[in-house]
Amino acid sequence: MLEVKDLRVSFFTPAGEVKAVGGISYELNYGEVMGIVGESGSGKSQEAYSIIGLLQSPGKVVGGSIHFEGRDVLAFNKDQMTQFRGSEVAMIFQNPMTCLNPVYTVGNQLVEALKAHDKKISKADAEKRAMEMLELVGINNVEKRMKQYPHEFSGGMRQRVMIAMGLICHPKLLIADEPTTALDVTIQAQILELMKDLQKKTQMGIIFITHNLGVVAEICDKVSVMYAGKIVEQGKVDDIFYRTGHPYTMGLLRSMPRVDAESHERLIPIEGTPVDMLNPPEGCPFAPRCEHCMKICLQKMPPYVELGEGHRAACWLRVQDELKKQREEGAQNG
């Protein structure tokens, strides 16, 4: 369904070029959920905005390609992009407070979103579909809610309205940018269940951007771990959790509380601070914070090493392991 190849996004600021996304590649098939995880500022959202054509100035796609069902998304004109959004690709934004219009009722905004992409639908049918979607995302008393304004909703309920708006046109691809951040745990579980249910019925593909590795384990089929604009590890969800290949992924997992842990087990934070994207390091971006850092890590970006089917990591430790394995195999054969 979606193929992203060597995508590069930069922001041209007075201080210089900020390389927000530095050459990432992945594929997404129908009915698949891919999690994109990483710290704030790792380029997760900017990569998503590039797909849907919503990069804010001074941001620019400076290289690479995005193909959706074989079509070049970056070559779309304004009308094609408008048609593409909503009917084929929809996005649930991170902040519902700024994404809902304060002067229109919630019902009006849902109906407008539907009618913009389905010109033949009547107003009565659009209102009926909007009420069904609000019920699906756990909002009760929907007839009253349709007539209310965003300020009359709590933060979590506004988030649910945004999710309903993203799903109302039944898109082929849904980009969810931290959609469960403002929700409590029970509502979060309901929303994840709803997404999984809709995805099974419609074979919708989902890109799920999150900090929450618990959500990733719950909903995703595969994961891309991003750090400083680069994908440092990619693989199926089980590989990422149980056969971790990159020290950064290990750090993320160690800093997450576990239900099965001993009661007094301490969480281990990742030492140091994220890199300055105006002056990224020459080598591996994680090297200054990595406990396994070697001289070569500071000098040269590591290549991807295949760790299994569909599982790869960009780390000099894994390169060493691969060379050691090849030497041992050579010694056995020799």
Structure at a glance:
It comes from Pseudoflavonifractor hominis. The protein is of the alpha/beta class and 334 residues long.
Protein architecture, described:
With 334 residues, the protein is of the alpha/beta class. It has a domain at 229-334. Helix content is 39%, strand content 24%. The protein is built from 13 helices and twelve strands. The strands form two sheets. An eight-stranded mixed β-sheet has the order 6-7-8-3-9-10-12-11, sandwiched between helices. A four-stranded antiparallel β-sheet has the order 2-1-4-5, with helices on one face. Helix 4 crosses helix 5. The longest helix is centred in the middle third of the chain and has 18 residues, at 185-202. The model has no long low-confidence stretch (mean pLDDT 88). It comes from Pseudoflavonifractor hominis. One of its GO terms (molecular function) is ATP binding.
Keywords for this structure?
eight-stranded mixed β-sheet, four-stranded antiparallel β-sheet, 13 helices, alpha/beta
SS-based class: alpha/beta
Largest sheet: 8 strands, mixed
Oligomeric state as shown: single chain
Distance between termini? 45 Å
What is the count of DSSP helices, taking H or I runs of 4+ residues?
Answer: 13
Mean pLDDT: 88
Helix content: 25-40%
- Helix and strand pattern: EEEHEEHEHHHHHEHEHEEHHHEEH
Rough outline: globular
How many E-type strands?
12
Share in β-strands: 15-25%
Radius of gyration: 22 Å
- Are there runs of 5+ residues with pLDDT below 50, and where? none
Within the largest sheet, what's the order of strands? 6-7-8-3-9-10-12-11
